[in-house]
Amino acid sequence: MELRNVQAVEVLDDFEVRLTFDDGLEKVVDLEKYLRGPIFEPLRENRALFRSVHVDEDAGTIVWPNGADIDPNVLYYDHLKPTWMEDEERAEAM
After folding, report:
1. Phi/psi at 5 (nearest 5 deg)?
2. Whether 21 contacts 7, CB under 8 Å
């Protein structure tokens, strides 16, 4: 699996964003399912803060002023999930 970087982000409706990746792929991603936990709660509660998302070129992903970010490979590859999501699925399976 090749590592990917986000090159551009455009906020759409609700929690959807249009992302452009370093290989030219453009896709719309609904970020609502990823916005869990203390770092992401302010983004869910404050739309202006959510809309302040931008690309951090050094990190290669989208970030917010409060320090939140999402792994670019989770955004690129549909089968990948954030660690917290995988942990929850394992706990539910037990």
Report:
1. -125, 145
2. yes
Distance between CA atoms of residues 87 and 69, nearest Å = 19
The pLDDT of residue 84 is above 70: no
**What is the C-alpha to C-alpha distance for residues 92 and 22, in angstroms, rounded to an integer?**
36
The structure tokens listed for 5 are 């970087």
Q: Identify the pLDDT of residue 87.
A: 66
The model's pTM is: 0.86
Instruction: Say if domain 6-93 classifies as CATH 3.40.50.10680.
Output: no
Domain ranges of the chain: 6-93
Question: Residues 70, 77: contact at Cβ < 8 Å?
Answer: no
The one-letter amino acid code at 58 reads D
